[in-house]
Amino acid sequence: MLEDSTFWIFGGSIHYFRVPREYWRDRLLKMKACGLNTLTTYVPWNLHEPERGKFDFSGNLDLEAFVLMAAEIGLWVILRPGPYICSELDLGGLPSWLLQDPGMRLRTTYKGFTEAVDLYFDHLMSRVVPLQYKRGGPIIAVQVENEYGSYNKDPAYMPYVKKALEDRGIVELLLTSDNKDGLSKGVVQGVLATINLQSTHELQLLTTFLFNVQVWSPHVAGELVCRRIWPSPMPHLQRPLRQWGTQPKMVMEYWTGWFDSWGGPHNILDSSEVLKTVSAIVDAGSSINLYMFHGGTNFGFMNGAMHFHDYKSDVTSYDYDAVLTEAGDYTAKYMKLRDFFGSISGIPLPPPPDLLPKMSYEPITPVLYLSLWDALKYMGEPIKSEKPINMENLPVSGGSGQSFGYILYETSITSSGVLSGHVHDRGQVFVNTVSIGFLDYKTTKITVPLIQGYTVLRILVENRGRVNYGENIDDQRKGLIGNLYLNDSPLKKFRIYSLDMKKSFFQRFSLDKWSSLPETPTLPAFFLGSLSISSTPCDTFLKLEGWEKGVVFINGQNLGRYWNIGPQKTLYLPGPWLSSGINQVIVFEETMAGPAFQFTETPHLGRNQYIK
């Protein structure tokens, strides 16, 4: 019930941190024009507290501005604050500095974890509480953690999170959210259970579950009834909401598509299949949230990974084959769902906003270059250690360690042989400056060739994304894990460079430190080019044909990773991140430099594979 009327939640997920702030309004207006009435969003702890005790809610992380903009447009908000959110985000949105504790047990009532959650929630909830419906804001419900039934390591954990929210002033409806594997174990007394699914078969599980389990009470969880502050986004619906007993039904995540992993296909879900399932969910009397309505992009190093049989990291694009594309364009799903929701809303829907223009800029050739080995002399003194130190435990970032990017280990060797060790996630091995191969999860040994005298052994290790879902999230420390051995003898006396590639990292490299691009550059290296724009900048897609693997930075903004194994072949470059005039483009390439940076107005996300 909302304002004395029975109503459905017709929701859609958009993550503010995956969309340029300048485009928030465009995406929310497109949501409203599709006939949806509720925005859902996760809150990423790792981005909001990048260093222990230092919070960032500015710019693209301004949660309050995003929520208030949704209210202004006429959307209710369901907030999903975690602390763990999954979301195909590095470590499921948990900050990596938690892993400095060797005994850390994430997502449990382990003291080291709950103390950190309490401090984070103290800060976060002071921002969220005034935005609740009963305080005059648009937030009508708050989720308690995320898919805990699939993890289920500590029976005291979910009650702890529920109490942590309530103690800090959360008074709106509380929800849990679980897939079919965790639904029976994720419930909490006094909290409405919702389900995540992709097929009508799984919908039957929700109906069956709600017949057999009643843990929710509106008197405990709160009702969606309050004075009207914002204009009601949803008029009285023409047909009654059916529910089993006293428990409303809701599909918190109806998966409109799926995410992609490096080396795999581009997953898609047919628009007719989406319409059929959405229609079935509503016909069953269930509220629904489309995950994702608009996926956006894993800008920077925020992507997560999966590691069941094999380690697979997620691509930069979070297009998700969602209702709106990565760049916010309409799809066949959008048109069909707009017709569907429009047919049951009872009022005409607002017109969909015009599409944003795209541009194919002229290719640019990099003119300046800086090899990684030359760059090291501008990095300051390396960290010195007898043994390797993993990324999270480096004495950097005010004691919070390194979260993302690369880390370089150097030591001296005087003989050849078999090099072995555990590298998370991918380490390129060099003898002096010559690459001799890679160490990763599958390749744990490599032969170091015959050498004479004093030689520098180097390993450039990349964090490709911490696992965001599964049993092994406690085991996500990056870099060299434990000792590195040569012929079964542990190597000692390491020099370690933190290559986090934040904006401050590049401030060390003034133009006078770069060299003209040689015919045969020494790799890995940074390549610098300039994109000149004479008119108003538009969205475009960067294509790195002939390049192999690395990261792109435009005017200091990290666009994310590229890798020629695909499926993703283009990187989304939002127009607001460009300016009229000269734009700086820096590419960090690990292994093979191409001739130019190309731009296209059409994304290429790889070979399609239909989700079964």
Question: What features would you describe in this structure?
Answer:
The protein is α/β, with parallel strands linked by helices and 612 residues long. It has three domains: 10-345, Alpha-Beta Barrel (TIM Barrel), CATH 3.20.20.80; 380-499, Sandwich (Jelly Rolls); 509-610, Jelly Rolls (Sandwich). Helices cover 17% and strands 28% of the residues. Strands 1-2-3-4-5-6-7-9 form an eight-stranded parallel beta barrel, surrounded by four helices. Helix 1 packs parallel to helix 3 and helix 8 packs parallel to helix 9 (332-345). It is globular.
CATH class of the largest domain: Alpha Beta
What is the helix content?
Answer: 10-25%
The domain count comes to: 3
Assembly form of the protein: single chain
Keywords:
TIM Barrel; Jelly Rolls; 3 domains; eight-stranded parallel beta barrel; 612 residues
Topology:
Layout: E1 10-14, H1 24-33, E2 38-42, H2 45-48, H3 63-73, E3 76-80, H4 111-128, E4 139-143, H5 157-167, E5 173-179, E6 192-197, H6 200-212, H7 218-221, E7 249-255, E8 266-268, H8 271-283, E9 286-294, E10 305-307, E11 311-313, H9 332-345, E12 368-371, H10 372-375, E13 383-385, E14 406-413, E15 417-424, E16 426-431, E17 434-440, E18 445-448, E19 455-462, E20 479-486, E21 489-490, E22 494-499, H11 503-506, E23 515-516, E24 525-533, E25 540-543, E26 549-554, E27 557-563, E28 570-573, E29 581-589, E30 598-600, E31 608-610
Parallel strand pairs: 1-2, 1-9, 2-3, 3-4, 4-5, 5-6, 6-7, 7-9, 8-31
Antiparallel strand pairs: 10-11, 12-23, 12-24, 13-22, 14-19, 14-22, 15-18, 15-20, 16-17, 16-19, 20-21, 24-29, 25-28, 25-30, 26-27, 26-29
